[in-house]
């Protein structure tokens, strides 16, 4: 499997790359080849006096390349120019990446201008699964908030086709997952489920699948605003990563669930993994 690891060469993204536990987790789920990508924004002019941005970035990214090689991955580096989320997404599609990893500090717009906005834009547009690796929000020398990326998962589902696709990610995540909480949030606008498909029954069926792989599983059904309730469950069970599909029941609900996944990317305490439609 191949992964794109995006970096703006800041202290925040350095924390993702230099954390050995995070790299080990990526190796355990089957990532063998890492494509390290940094993008010079198109509004940064190559001809600015006394500054060769591309040369500086290539020199800086070499240090990260050595770290990832020492962790046992094959590595390719890409220093490109353009709009960050578009170039990152394009490289992922070109190489056939199974995962894109990007660091983000989360809520604060002042701390979140470059790679944070890139994470949000990728959450809206990505064509491959996206892992937003949460970095400490207020630290001069930040580190990752959750080192074990996939050890304790929170899987949120609306039982849509795309949510099912997100669940299929456990086929490889299970090699690094020990515990999972499965949650469904009922809303007033929910199209409803038949008596034969009540949420607890469906979650129990999913739990059975995970427990066959030796993953300890619990289920929760809640009522209310999906993003608020998912974040409340995160607060209660302290997962390392929230796993969710980035689209909902139909095109009419795309904006609704799209806004939920975007809220999770911005507000979750830990990591968020989004799985887009096929």
From TrEMBL:
Look up keyword rRNA-binding and say if it applies: no
Where the record annotates domain UspA, the positions are 5-132, 150-276
InterPro entries, A to Z: Universal_stress_UspA, UspA
Any one Pfam family here would be Usp
Keywords on this record?
Plasmid
So what family is this one in?
A: Belongs to the universal stress protein A family.
PANTHER family noted in UniProt: STRESS RESPONSE PROTEIN NHAX, UNIVERSAL STRESS PROTEIN UP12
Name of protein:
UspA domain protein
């Amino acid at each position: 499997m191949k992964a794109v690891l995006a970096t703006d060469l800041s202290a925040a993204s350095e924390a993702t790359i230099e954390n050995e536990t995070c790299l080990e987790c990526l190796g355990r789920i089957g990532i063998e080849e890492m494509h390290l990508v940094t993008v010079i924004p198109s509004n940064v002019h190559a001809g600015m006096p006394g500054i060769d941005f591309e040369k500086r970035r290539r020199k800086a990214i070499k240090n990260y390349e050595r770290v990832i090689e020492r962790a046992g991955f094959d590595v390719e580096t890409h220093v490109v120019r353009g709009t960050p989320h578009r170039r990152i997404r394009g490289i992922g599609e070109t190489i056939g990446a199974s995962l894109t990893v990007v660091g983000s500090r989360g809520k604060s717009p002042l701390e979140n201008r470059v790679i944070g906005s890139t994470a949000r834009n990728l959450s809206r547009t990505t064509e491959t699964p996206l892992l937003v690796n949460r970095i400490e929000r207020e630290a001069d020398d930040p580190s990752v908030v959750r080192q074990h990326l996939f050890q304790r998962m929170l899987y949120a589902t609306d039982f849509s086709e795309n949510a099912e696709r997100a669940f299929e990610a456990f086929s490889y995540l299970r090699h690094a997952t020990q515990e999972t909480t499965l949650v469904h949030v009922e809303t007033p606008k929910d199209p409803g489920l038949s008596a034969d498909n009540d949420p607890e029954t469906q979650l129990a069926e999913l739990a059975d699948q995970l427990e066959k792989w030796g993953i300890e599983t619990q289920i929760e059904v809640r009522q209310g605003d999906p993003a608020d309730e998912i974040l409340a469950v995160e607060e209660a069970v302290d997962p390392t990563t929230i796993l969710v599909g980035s689209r909902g029941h139909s095109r009419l609900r795309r904006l609704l669930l799209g806004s939920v996944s975007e809220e999770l990317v911005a507000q979750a305490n830990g990591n968020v993994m989004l799985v887009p439609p096929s």
